[in-house]
Design a protein that fits this description.
- The structure holds 2 protein chains of 2 kinds.
- By secondary structure, chain A is mainly alpha-helical.
- Chain A contains 20 helices and 2 strands.
- Chain A has a two-stranded antiparallel sheet with strand order 1-2.
- The two termini of chain B are about 35 Å apart.
- In chain B, a hairpin with a 4-residue loop joins β1 and β2.
- In chain B, strands 1-2 form a two-stranded antiparallel ribbon.
- The longest helix of chain B is centred in the middle third of the chain and has 32 residues.
- Chain B is about 75% helix and about 0% strand.
- Chain B is globular.
- By secondary structure, chain B is an all-alpha fold.
- The interface between A and B is medium-sized, with 35 and 33 residues.
Chain lengths: ~525, ~475
Amino acid sequence: MFPLLSVITFVPLAGALVLLFVGSKNENLIRMITLATGLVDFAFSLALYYGFDDSTHAMQFVERAPWIKSFGAEYYMGVDGISLFMVMLTTVTCVVCYLATWTAVERNVKEFNISMLVLQTAMVGVFCALDFVLFYVFWELMLIPMYLLIGVWGGKNRIYATVKFFVYTMAGSVLMLFAILVLYFQYHSATGVYTFDVLKYHAFAFDKNLQFWMFLCFFVAFAIKVPVFPFHTWLPDAHVEAPTTGSVILAGILLKMGTYGFLRFSLPIFPHASLAAAWWVSWVAIIGIIYGALVALAQEDIKKLVAYSSVSHLGFVVLGTFAFTLRGVSGGIMQMINHGVSTGALFLIVGILYERRHTRLIAEYGGVWKVMPKFAFIFMLIALSSIGVPLTNGFIGEVMILVGVYEANAVYASLAVVGVLLGAAYMLWTFKRVMLGEITNEKNKDLPDLSARELAYMAPFVILVFLIGVYPNPVLKKMEPSVRNLVGQVAKARSGGTAVAAGVRAPDGLRRE
Amino acid sequence: MPITIPPIDLLAVAPEIAVSGFACLLLMTAVFLKGKGGWVNACVALVGLAVAGWFALCQGAPRSAYSGMYAADGFTQFFKIIFLLGTGLVVLVSVKYNEEENMNNGEYYALLLFSTAGMMLMAAASDMMTLFLGLELLSISLYVLAGYARNRPGSNEAALKYFLLGGFAVGFLLYGMAMIYGATGHTDFAGIGREAARGADNRLYLVVGAVMLLTGLGFKVAAVPFHQWTPDVYEGAPIPVTAFMSAGPKAAVLAVMIRVYAQSVSFMHVDWLVWLSVLAVMTMTVGNVAALVQSDAKRMLAFSSISHAGYAMVGLAAATREAVASVAVYMLVYTLMNIAVFGILALVARKNEQRTKMRDFAGLARSNPVLAVSMTILVFSLAGIPPMAGFMAKFYVLMAAVKAGLYWLVLAAVLNSAVGIYYYLRFTVHMYMDEPEEKLPPVKASPALVVAIALSIIGVLLIGVVPSAYLEMAGRAVVSF
């Protein structure tokens, strides 16, 4: 069998190795190679998408080989309906980023592109790994290039931001490492088998008391990554200091690893603890939604605004996930994709403005639509998608989450609606202040509109906004069996082992064929 | 009682003989070379180490030699390889440094080899007499080596401090040994273990003796609170010597601790568990926290080496067979990476070690990108980030400790390694994100140093990505436990 997942994972790394042998003076060649690598990887991921069988929740494209025999750790890769879209999101976003950095990065182009490619390998690896050790290796490997991206090519306060990012994430990760080891030996003492196979852990019922503590360890690791309030303080710093593409990757993919972690590990391995924790996790998520939106309202720096809006949006994802209903969880995954698309695009928009004016202060702009009409159009579309206006992708995700949460708890849903309203407020207000009205600042008089390259890299996101917004069924259909299975696992724990529970009923609202 | 002369087992001690023999040879070549052609000395030393390595590899079936004073088992063999590897790397790191500092003579390498022989003897010791012999051979050579840059006051200070405090610690060690002998009537570990297991009447003496022994060994491995000498000595000694001291001797003492506390007096396992756990936590935490605030790279690495000894002691506290294997792997990996880091530091410090500050690494990414990438890989490995070997080593130790149920100890270790990230990152911050204060000609690694760095990077990546073979090797080495 063709090892498709390994190819998708390691093609970028191969590209990085090729770059090692290219002279650092040939900057355009380096950019071309990087872009080509990204495109090849994207092509392979398309093959993954079309080859994906949507009738089963089982792992597909599975590859496994013994790796560290004395531990029972394996090289074990596979995707299901949840990770499939994370992989797709990664390959798309990376191609966009490679195009977007063409002129934005002028210093150490070679090193930058190598870092990006290594980062892509690690990110795809995180979403495909089904062995805990392998997962952890990719999870940590990802930190190094990201740390360099922010630290070397970032803004003024980059060192503080990047070290904070690294140490925060690491602090969470090591707790997860501890929990992984405890699970490993618990599993062994119960079954006599040494394995780091995640799916085996899914199928095993860990002691409820143990579940609680282990859930906490995992929760901290993922909550820092998401970031869930109050672990979010590294995010604004990292976003503001990161170069544009760093921010796009950070918002588009890295943050999703936290929510992906909930879906892949926390819920299925600790269903009891997840159920027991749902109430406080939901409250924390709601606080994050409203707090993130309020703080975003008060920002004067566009990038910081988008960063805080991420806190708010990811709060929705967590809320949906911990509703444990089919719609809530699918909506959460949907919103993970949407947030990657719309927030990634917003960071690119900020980057486009920044490249022209070298400032991100909202007050410096105003009336930009007059000189940049194409840009204004795209910005408007993306802003609407971020707000969740019907026909855009954001609408689908938010509605599904709200319906899913409502099924579980009406109070949570009504509080979350406040976040939606606030989201519309800060987004539209920002758009008004930056784009509408008369040009008040002389420097904005002759800003050039989008170039062909800029249009080219915005295009995939704009297409996705409408594609998912108008016709989300292919996406939902592919993720449905996996989500249904996941919700079923939690429901089984709720009902104490007896089959179908409330969360697993027919998803009538999902199917619109 | 008639005195019987034990059968002579030359093959068991062949590595020690080879190393000592070549050390003597070096003293001779030094006379003939008259201070010129220092690289010849280095080559002789390397050949000696290689020969010893070969002897160590074909040591034969595990056995006890010289009436139970010397253990020629897989454990000894594994550690001997670590020492020889470490000393080999140090020799490679030393060549250019010594040339620049005008100390590239035979005696230096002879001392390195003598202390290596001492370490090997320690790892093989199954009797307190052998242990003491090895330890003294190691220590006395190290005292001299610490002061080898005799024109630098710092180096003299280091040697004197090390000697005085080391002598004091050895006093504890000897007194402890005497007490243990008094309580049990044995000097060999197996005998002590047997006697103690019978529930000797003199249990108090035995415990006091074992604690004093722990104090002496704790000093040598730089465990907190017996670590006070470490920063000053490490900072003052010539960089290659610091590299040497930070790796091999620590491994040797840990090997002894494993033999004594995991094997011999393991009947009191519970007591030692508490003692060693407390020592491990203190060692990790104090080493890490002190390293956080250092601005001098050499001093920072000294503190970080303290914390690494702490991680290894987590495995020691667990004291299972896996834990022993994990400590062995940890020391192998640690030796590989730490010596190379010091090698790079020696280069960056330039002549007379004037630039050992962290910020002297500024701009290295531009002036010598390959060296900067190497340094990055090595410090990330020291920090324990996958896919580097440092992670696998730590993972293995933590795994053993979790298996032994030492959850809180493991939590302390993982949180410590998160703290450790911060100061290791400072190297990369300076190399990649900082501008140098003054313009200096770019540093260029000598061929020997390139070999040393390349070897350790290959090792670090190999053990990090495909660790299976090494872990199994270590597993086989500890079957006697």
